[in-house]
Amino acid sequence: MHHLSRITFIVLALVLTMGICSAQAKDEIRVSGQPCLHGLPTWWAIEDGWTKDKNIDLTYTLFPSGAPQVEALAADQWDVGAMGTVPTMMAILRYGAKLIAISNDESETNDLWVRPDSPILKTKGFNPKYPEIYGKPEDWKGKKILVTTVSTVHYALDATLKALGLTEKDVEVVNIEQGQAVTAFASSQGDVVCLWAPFSYTAESKGWKKVSSGARSGAMIPGGVVVRKDFAEKHPDLVVEWLDLYMTALDRMRTDKAGSGVWLNKYFAGYCGLQLPESAIKSEFELRPIFSVEQQVKALTAPDEASAWMKGVADFFAGQGRITKADMADLEKSNFGIDASFMKKVQEKRAAKK
User: Fold this and answer.
1) Which is nearest to 252 in space by CA: 294, 290, 283?
2) Is pTM beyond 0.90 here?
3) CA 139 → CA 21, 167, 181, distances in Å?
4) pLDDT at 9 over 50
5) Domain 26-105+223-353 sits in which CATH superfamily?
């Protein structure tokens, strides 16, 4: 009897141990983002408990811009994340990251601003191909431009200068992070400041005037959703699980802008330390088109969409002297790091549930 009790105790202990282990056996996915619209989905999923009944746990790290985010990728500090087009290209080129989704079209919300008394505002549409760009070449020459370099808004600046027949050699480029750029420009430093949303709305609230943007200068700027190469290879199912959650948030952001705006306001104010008026929150959804799963699959596979957009970014890198002909050949061979397989699996997973 004593012997049986001992066996029962051991079995019970094993069952309890297995239960505890299974309760803790969630896979961690380390996610990165920025104080931008494309950072909202993962933070929202965490805050609203979307993973409670799933086999994954999410941790979220905020970065001020793409350059330090890419550096952290190189140091193996995150697995999946959202960033601008330019850092996406750098992550693909240098570290083999995969582009698995488009977070949003942020062409219009990467923009260039001046003060109301700027001479740049005197002329509009100097180049009839770009009627919404302000200023003549001579108005821009020699101007001190505050910009976060190697970023999406740097790409918009480059496209704007090209539209005016200029290059960066014709202006003075000052590298500065976004929050510091707003502060510096407000204290009369620089002649032009290059921002992305939500910092653009701060510029608008201060009465500064938009003189160009990615959209106005012909630069398509898709936000990138990327995955670290070895994580994609070792844990494809986890990537799909997280991407499905990310797309759930994008679906809500497309169909319920008011409700999503409440969460975006919480994200900006409570997590990113940014106070924005309701009009700015509304503009985030009006100015940034968001793609459905079906649209994502098309964008990632159509030759005139994501690959063409990334080719534009690669040309920008080449113009900056940051990539070589060999780099360009590698990018083209890899189809600019685009991998539609994960989004297709999300599509299949959802179709199976119907």
Assistant:
1) 290
2) no
3) 67, 14, 21
4) no
5) Periplasmic binding protein-like II (3.40.190.10)
